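Cross-check.
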Amino acid sequence: MLFFKKQPIIVIHDGRFHADDIFACAVLRLHTGKKGKIIRTRDPEIIAGADFVADVGGIYDPAKKMFDHHQHGGAGIRENSIPYAAFGLVWKEYGAAISGSPEIAVIVERNIVLPIDAGDNGVTTFESIPGKPFPYLVQGAFSAFMPTWKEDNAIIDAHFVQLVDIAQMILEREITQARDYIEGERELKKIYESAEDKRVLVFGRMYPWEQALIQFPEPLLVVASRDGKKWKVETTLVAPGSFERRMKLPESWAGLRDEELQKVTGVSDATFCHNGRFIATAKTKEGALALAKLAFEQK
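Predicted model, tokenized:
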């Protein structure tokens, strides 16, 4: 945690807020050990006296702790063509220190910083389908806190501070998720390398295998348990972000539970198979392994 002789002042623009400036403030609050005082203003004199300035002021200069992207020419564009917004600028400067490593910071950048910077700069990152609902994004959730035409604009500043607290919690959870994902990926690699039959990987903890195993071509099924009381056999994914599976469980299992599934499979402690045929459960590890073996035999 950094030490500041006085309470650091963080200046952000006033008026309408967006996820970009909310998260920029959250990063700066975490950088200051949650001690930074937020002032929402466009007053040049207050900006000049601030310790950190984000999304206002017309200057991007990390040495001066100024992180705006609204000036002519912006504040840089990433290799993937997504321009930097204030969130991305402060994360680029302080993300590695806040999260504990550049590796973690890269994952957080990918998961949350990039989508918010893209949205703030009007860059489309997914295809919307006419007639289908638009995804409910964090930007939309935050915009719900803007006053309606019937409400007093005075609530804006109070809501902004509340949302910064929420954004801090989200960032802290994203950091934790990324840190533990990296550790889990290392453990999964060890399990994969030591497995005799690499088509089925077995582990007694719920490692983040869904995305991590995509890099290996052989795994088709995972047998795993969170607490040792219920075991699952689940099919692996084809590609990142895809719902497509490398194989499906037998069609005759679909939607069955307990006695019905036990009768069809011959596994005495089988408890459930999803209609989508991507996951089945049993009460014991032995039961889950038996289901996995049957799935290959009936494939």
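The chain has a mean pLDDT of 92. The two ends are 55 Å apart (CA to CA). Passed to J.P. for a second look.
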